[in-house]
Amino acid sequence: MPNPRILVIYAHPAPHRSRINRKLADAARALDGVLVHDLYETYPDFFIDVAREQALLEQAELVVFLHPIRWYSMPSLLKEWVDTVLEAGWAYGPGATALLGKGYWLAVTTGSPEEAYRPGERHGRPFEAYLPPFEQTALLCGMHWWPPHILHGANGADEAAVAAHVAAFRARLEAFLLTPPKGQADGT
Amino acid sequence: MEHNLLSNAVVYLGAAVLAVPLAKRLGLGAVLGYLLAGMAIGPWGLKLITEVETILHFSEFGVVLLLFLIGLELEPARLWSMRRPIFGWGAAQLLGVAWQVALVGALGLSLSSTAIALATLGERNLMGTPAGQASFAILLFQDIAAIPMIALIPLLGVAAADSAGGGWTGAARLAAVVLGAVVAGRFLVRPALRIIAKSEMREIFTAFALLLVIAISLLMQWVGMSMALGAFMAGVLLADSEYRHALETDLEPFKGLLLGLFFIAVGMSVDFGVFLSKPWLILGLVLGFLALKLAVLFALSTRFGIARGQRWLFAFLLSQGGEFAFVVFGAAGAARVFSPEAGSILVAVVALSMVTTPLLLLLHDKVLEPRYHGQNVREPDAIEDNEGHVIIAGFGRFGQIVGRLLNANRIKLTVLDHDPDQIELLRRFGFKVFYGDATRPDLLHAAGAGKARALVLAIDDIEDSLALADAVREHFPDLPILARARNVTHLYQLMDRGVTIIERETFESALQLGRRLLSQLGYGAYRAREATLKFREHNKASVDAVYPVYKDREQYVSMSKRARDELNEMFARDLKSYEKESEKGWD
């Protein structure tokens, strides 16, 4: 495969029990030009090969973070990945250009329905209120924030809703692949 | 009579208690201490004891017990694997002397002292070295060879042949008894041991152990075998039994005391009367005898590929005349092969040659050994100050991994091992590796255990590992021990000694392979990891839970039964904890 333009960072601690994220990952895998990188399969011991991850990021134009929301945030291995891979001087800070201009697309599912994300409800505030750490991460690295692709109430979602969500995900990826490749940040 | 026995006991024990620690303190070794004590209290010393013959005879039983215990250490399979050294070495050594000197005297003198040589090997922890192995092989062969020798003597003399020893009936009886012993050992003695062990009467177990050895020895003597060899055979027969360790611990003190008594008796039997009447003759004989024997042994050691540094040690170890010589000369005297006077001269020569062994070994340690320093065999190294270091005892496959991890992280290491080749190799790669038996407290001191941050106990021999744990606990109670356990029982034994950081050597790697198997079977890598970690925690908890049970049955239940019970219990626990896996929702 030529260098994939899209890198999907897939983080699911129990893929064998996943209904939706696994389908999203499979849909992405089916496309040429997309690399699905399964973090829990690659680093079950949480010992991350930083150089390898950085190389994967450098060759991508769009980075998709595909995972269920856990405790208003990302699964723990992905947090470890962010902590170790996005190094100062490489991802952000003076002289850091590695991720400049790349797309940052969050594709997540939540267990609770959207109604739970309201003042006075279970989660107290709209879901968007939990996104600033993601947005700011993208910003700090000079990446373009894409509007997130979210499926709420994943536990109770019916087949049709899931299929529609997967199809929309796939269509967005395909649309990106049809755009002309950009000159990459590292100049290759 | 009873008063006599007790007062004699006081004399023996007193002499031993005084002389042996003193001799050790002076660096002469325990054997020489006993010999000197014997000379001091004997007919030519303070005349406290006169019936030397009786005592010598009685205390020979110490040698019998020694051989029984050695037999216990040797499983038949191991003995079989040693057949070549035993016969190759043994025959070569016997022949080597036999053609040089004449007849019975030569035969008798060619035998070395099993008791002295083995006690010395044990005291110096040399049993595992090539010289030690070769010595043992020779001694064992001599014990076997003494039988036909003793049987042969009457034929050479003028007295009538001993009816018990010779002829077809004797041979048949010998075969029958040996066969009977093999069968009885398997089908009678083991069940009997089991029943007695179940009665939980410790002293009856001890009594039975003694009864067993004495009965077999007498039986063997009756068919014309040496008592010691018979006991050795009995030991070998019981070597793979589950009661091996119990027998060893029960008989060990008897062996030690009786062997001490034997050496005292040898010391007493040195006839200074004969010596004074013909001092030059006897001195000349002793010197000539030693020179000849040393020459032969040294020549043999070069032929049989013993490392240069160990050749003199080997020759010195076997240079003395043996206790069988007394028996052989006794038989020869009875058969009138030679005159009583010649007999007593020869006995004096043998006894004096026994006294020389510890002295020769002392010479070896102080003069010869240092010359070979840096070659294949060496004294425990002087270890330089290495403050804040970690000691790794045992640098085989296990210790090496730990050591390299530490080394890669720039942690100072002191490595102790007893394989000289290994050490040279590792030193070439810049490791601080030192030679020595790590279980010796003085070496621990020298290794700077007082300044170490931790000690890694990675020795592969379980008994050595436990001995080192004991030594560290006793001498360096503040030094943390991190131990490798060979199996669960070893783990428990380490826990008994207060070691808290223990890894079972195969456990983690087996778990890792199991984890990879789960992946292979379609588990995701992370799920396989979780399942493995869960089982790992569960297994550790089970091992801890079974520990008190192990303590309860430690004393009398056999090792194999114990392991089976423990496994049983753990299987039951495995199933219980895996009855339900929660299936909560995931998207």
Can you give a write-up of this model?
The complex is a heterodimer of chains A (188) and B (587). The longest helix of chain A is centred in the last third of the chain and has 20 residues, at 159-178. In chain A, helix 1 packs parallel to helix 6. Chain A is globular. In chain A, strands 1, 2, 3, 4, 5 and 6 form a six-stranded parallel beta sheet that branches. The model of chain A is unreliable at 184-188 (pLDDT under 50). Chain A is built from six helices and six strands; from the N terminus they run βαβααβαβαββα. The two termini of chain A are 17 Å apart. With 188 residues, chain A is α/β, with parallel strands linked by helices. Chain B is mainly α and 587 residues long. Helices cover 70% and strands 4% of the residues of chain B. Chain B has 25 helices and six strands. Chain B has helices at 2-25, 30-41, 52-73, 76-81, 83-98, 103-110, 114-124, 130-156, 167-198, 202-222, 227-237, 244-269, 272-277, 279-303, 308-317, 323-334, 340-371, 397-408, 420-428, 441-446, 462-475, 488-496, 507-520, 525-553, 559-577, and strands at 390-393, 413-417, 433-435, 454-457, 481-485, 501-504. A six-stranded parallel beta sheet of chain B has the order 3-2-1-4-5-6, with helices on both faces. In chain B, strand 2 (413-417), helix 19 (420-428) and strand 3 form a beta-alpha-beta unit. Chain B is globular. Mean pLDDT of chain B is 74; it is low at 95-101, 158-166 and 374-379. Classes of the chains: A alpha/beta (188), B mainly alpha (587). The interface between A and B is medium-sized, with 22 and 11 residues.
